[in-house]
Amino acid sequence: xxxxxxxxxxxxxxxxxxxxxxxxxxxxxxxxxxxxxxxxxxxxxxxxxxxxxxxxxxxxxxxxxxxxxxxxxxxxxxxxxxxxxxxxxxxxxxxxxxxxxxxxxxxxxxxxxxxxxxxxxxxxxxxxxxxxxxxxxxxxxxxxxxxxxxxxxxxxxxxxxxxxxxxxxxxxxxxxxxxxxxxxxxxxxxxxxxxxxxxxxxxxxxxxxxxxxxxxxxxxxxxxxxxxxxxxxxxxxxxxxxxxxxxxxxxxxxxxxxxxxxxxxxxxxxx
Length: 271
Fold this sequence. Notes:
By secondary structure, the chain is of the alpha/beta class.
């Protein structure tokens, strides 16, 4: 029997999920896709409506989402501790959900993504999606470190840099004294053909690549939809925080040495 909840419309068999605060991040939306999937698995006959002020593209083509509406819900979908997906699922009595989002693409979108890599790749090198920047400067590693890591991976991989449009003016143009890269810095040995693409096309490419490097957590949430081969480099203050970090990913902190990161990634991706 379906639990009683203020966002469940029993006569019309509609479950509404969304955010109760004004968040517009990619990760917030991807987490909602996980919640919608887990609700559908438990109650496949019910329709799911999304309410969000964030991007809508990630809900396109999802067969069990009936409607996507701009706005906020009046109830916090967040109970207890653990990963955000676990906490939101727990609100509907769902325990042990799969910790990844679900994005759906048309056959044409997947064909375009596949052909894009076929055209761009050098030899038989596999593609990696890379987003160096973050909306929080404290999460950024140095450009030289990224370049050295890409060099170490280059015998087997092509690394394609993508960007997220940043709307947080307090992080632009950055403090020249903080020794951190600018938000839009280009890592010189990363291939640049994929910059300035819309996020849905980047997500389709990520579904083909299945590997991700970077400091941008929004792209990490996207990457986790398609596989576990990801690493995220974060500020040390987030160490031990299990609210949104994925245990399947490879997480490094700002005090990790370049050699330690290279050795780890070579063992995982070049063995």
